[in-house]
Amino acid sequence: MPNFSNWLCEGCAARLGFVRRGVLTILVLGATVDPNGVTRVPCRTCGDGRTWKANAQRSPAGGIASRSSPPLALSSTNRGR
Q: In whole angstroms, what is the distance from residue 75 CA to residue 61 CA?
């Protein structure tokens, strides 16, 4: 069993990146991140793409995790579908 998952375009299944231990590594140019933490990754093959939004991770005290906490988990969402 591989220790990573390929992250593919919704339109043509081109490889846009991979996910390992909840961390997305983007392999294409042109990805953008907006102020809300939504990452948009375009597909150069078909023009479609995918988006990801970071999930806020709560600390044991109930507040948002600090910079010394583990990285935020990411969740996949469809772009415009």
A: 23
**What are the sequence ranges of the domains in the chain?**
5-77
Per-residue pLDDT of the chain (81 residues; tens, 9 = 90+): 568 899 999 999 999 999 998 888 999 999 999 888 889 999 999 988 899 887 755 444 444 443 443 444 444 554 444
The span from the CA of 6 to the CA of 4, in Å, is 7
Global pTM? 0.60
Residues 6+ apart with CB under 8 A from 17: 6, 7, 24, 25, 26, 27, 28, 41
The C-alpha atoms of residue 36 and residue 6 are separated, in whole angstroms, by 24
Residue type, 11: G
Helices then strands, each counted (H, E), the chain: 0, 7
Sign of the alpha-carbon torsion through 4, 21, 31, 53: positive
